[in-house]
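Need residues for this backbone.
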């Protein structure tokens, strides 16, 4: 692939966005190239340009004046497999394989019928189909599901079927736009095995974009984009090696991990900090021994040890420099400043459940309210859909001020459980008490004390940011000055003031997530439900999001969260892992990591622990069947 002077501008709702900005890039034939960048970097636009689905802008710096569409700008060059994309877009589309983010599976057709349909579309000879289908079904592990409707597949299986359909005619070049978004770690591993096998055994060149930075390590080459421009290109190791001497693991047994992270994030020597294992992973602003004198004076058991750099460290470092910030996003105030009507508290004295700070003020104190009595109690919870039992006798409890994780593979029953806990779906059996209320009898009352952020963007896309906040605040019963104060708080805290008049459907994904969380917090809920809130967003947005969640938990709000990013499990105080509607394992992140420790794997990650548990469960289920 060869690009020269490639730009693409979009205009919507009065905004002009340069998605790709004068890009010059070469991608070598063979192997796997990763397309990495934050939301709005131009990854999807670049892929659509390469497939001929979009046409680049004329080069604004060219001296040539182009008076019609037929006139070509000689400075703009876009070639794929030696084909001039601008002159022969259909030829490119007939030659390559392309799987967009929302791949067009026909959910009312079976797995086999989807393959046959795409074989028809690609002109695959009938004589060649049987062997090709058999190869793809074995490669994707879908051989036992050929007659199942695509709509009844799990998220990971749908993605595998999408890859199979894109490969139904073996292409010399395969473009995959975030194929692993929203799928569990086991399915992600399986998908990468498929991609690597195609590149290794079939000689397919692969260009893949991804929001999971650990997946960059699977690539032979990395193209790092930001705001449509090239920030760097090379093997993953070249990026990570530049961070050697700047990466550390910091722990202090006498300090809670979230408190440790907050303290570290305030230190001027620290660029980035995320929770990891029993402590925190720190990227220093400069190479050399990390000195934390203020923290060392406060705790006697502070341990700082260097660790191997990884691609994610380099990504955060380069992005922080590109956006002109001296550090990665710092903790932001997130909780409420106004009290609920009738609470007896003034605006200057927030209620205990939202003990927090003003927008723009100091972060929550370290000595936040202690975790105490259960606010969510689940006993024998079941949900049936006809003969299918989606949730089978769940038992767990969540305490006030706790971040509680609900994890599992696709189809484990997490979202169904979430909807029952929120009162959006009645339980078939069992007991659920939320905020002291029985969800069978008092679901409407309980919902007034809950905040819910759905897995998919649930705001009204045709309404502006401000109109959405007005609508949802009214739906929560806010009126008059209190409503205006809460909307002002949401706009300021989530940095939505400058875009409050913009159409919500036109916002980048990161801003959509901010808006959705702001709407969920307008009525100052005691409990916040977050269903895969960071799915599809980049590492910078995920960090910002978790800083807000941590601040809420520190202020006493109870958080229940599902996620497919296993590193986010480290932010949970406790969690359960579900499989086939049942609790497979429960405990603290460190306790579950310890279960995966083996001589051959002395330092397992939480993802290692998750994959080991799910894989063992699936193997046992297959043997029992």
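Answer:
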């Amino acid at each position: 692939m060869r690009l020269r002077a490639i730009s693409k501008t979009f205009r919507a709702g009065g905004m002009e966005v340069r998605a790709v900005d004068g890009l010059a890039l070469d991608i070598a034939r063979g192997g796997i190239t990763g397309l990495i960048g934050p939301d709005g970097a131009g990854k999807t636009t670049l892929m659509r340009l390469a497939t001929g689905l979009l046409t680049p802008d004329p080069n604004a710096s060219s001296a040539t004046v182009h008076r019609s569409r037929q006139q070509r700008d000689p400075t703009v060059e876009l070639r794929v497999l030696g084909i001039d994309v601008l002159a022969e877009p259909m030829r490119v589309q007939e030659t390559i394989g392309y799987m967009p983010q929302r791949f067009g599976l026909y959910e009312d057709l079976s797995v086999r019928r989807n393959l046959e349909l795409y074989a028809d579309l690609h002109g695959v000879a009938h004589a060649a189909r049987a062997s090709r289908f058999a190869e793809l079904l074995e490669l994707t592990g879908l051989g036992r599901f050929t007659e199942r409707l695509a709509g009844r597949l799990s998220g990971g299986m749908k993605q595998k079927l999408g890859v199979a359909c894109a490969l139904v005619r073996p292409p010399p070049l395969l473009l995959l736009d975030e194929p692993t978004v929203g799928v569990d770690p086991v399915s992600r591993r399986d998908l990468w095995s498929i991609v690597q096998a195609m590149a290794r055994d079939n000689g397919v060149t692969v260009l893949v974009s991804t929001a999971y930075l650990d997946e960059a390590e699977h690539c032979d080459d990395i193209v790092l984009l930001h705001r449509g421009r090239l920030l760097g290109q090379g093997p993953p190791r070249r990026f990570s090696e530049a961070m050697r001497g700047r990466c550390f693991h910091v722990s202090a047994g006498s300090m809670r991990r979230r408190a440790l992270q907050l303290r570290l994030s305030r230190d001027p020597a620290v660029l980035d900090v995320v929770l990891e294992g029993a402590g925190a992973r720190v990227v220093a602003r400069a190479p050399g021994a990390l000195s934390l004198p203020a923290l060392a004076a406060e705790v006697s058991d502070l341990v700082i040890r260097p660790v191997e750099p990884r691609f994610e460290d380099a990504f955060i470092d380069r992005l922080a420099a590109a956006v002109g910030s001296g550090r990665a996003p710092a903790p932001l105030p997130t909780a409420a400043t106004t009290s609920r009507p009738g609470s007896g508290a003034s605006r200057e004295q927030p209620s205990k459940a939202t003990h927090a700070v003003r927008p723009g003020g100091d972060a929550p104190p370290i000595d936040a309210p202690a975790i105490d009595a259960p606010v969510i109690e689940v006993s024998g919870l079941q949900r049936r859909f006809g003969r299918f039992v989606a949730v089978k006798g769940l038992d767990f409890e969540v305490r006030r001020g706790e971040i509680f994780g609900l994890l599992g593979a696709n189809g484990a029953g997490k979202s169904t459980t979430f909807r029952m806990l929120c009162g959006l779906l009645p339980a078939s059996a069992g007991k659920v008490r939320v905020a002291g209320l029985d969800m069978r009898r008092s679901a409407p009352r309980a919902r007034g004390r809950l905040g819910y952020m759905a897995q998919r963007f649930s705001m009204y896309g045709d309404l502006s940011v401000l109109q959405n906040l007005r609508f949802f605040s009214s739906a929560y019963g806010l009126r008059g000055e209190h409503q205006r104060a809460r909307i002002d708080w949401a706009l300021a805290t989530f940095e939505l003031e400058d875009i409050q008049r913009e159409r919500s459907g036109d916002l980048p994904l990161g801003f959509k997530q901010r808006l959705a969380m702001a709407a969920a917090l307008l009525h100052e809920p005691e409990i916040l439900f977050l269903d895969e809130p960071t799915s599809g967003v980049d590492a910078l947005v995920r960090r910002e999001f978790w800083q807000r969640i941590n601040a809420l938990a520190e202020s006493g709000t109870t958080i229940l969260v599902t996620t497919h990013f296993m590193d986010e499990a480290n932010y949970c105080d406790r969690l359960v892992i579900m499989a086939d509607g049942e609790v497979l394992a429960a405990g603290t992140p460190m306790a579950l990591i310890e279960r995966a420790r083996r001589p051959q794997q002395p330092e397992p990650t939480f993802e290692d622990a998750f994959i080991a548990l799910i894989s063992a469960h699936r193997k046992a289920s297959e043997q029992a069947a």
